[in-house]
Amino acid sequence: MLFFYTDILGIDATIAGTIFLVATIWDAISDPIVGWIASNTRSRWGRYRGYLLWMPIPLGISYVLLFYQPNLEGWALIAWVGFLQILFRTNFTLANIPYSSLSSEMTFDPAERSQLAMYRMFLGYAGALIVSVGTGVLITKMGWLAEEDGYWRVAIVAAIVATILFFICFKNTFELPQKSKQTSLKLKDALAMILQNPPFWKLNLFVVVGMAGVVLLYQSLAYYFKYNLNNEAVLGTGMLYLFIVLMLALPLWLKLTTLLGKPKTLMMGCVVLMIGSLGFYFHTLTNTSITLTYWYLAILGCGIGCMGFSFWAMLPDTVEFGEWKTGVRAEAIIFGFGLFFLKIGLGIGSFVLGLLLNYFGYIPNAIQGVDTLNGLHALATLALFLPALITFFIMLTYSLSATRYGEILRELGMRNK
Question: What is the value of pTM for the model shown?
Answer without folding.
Answer: 0.76
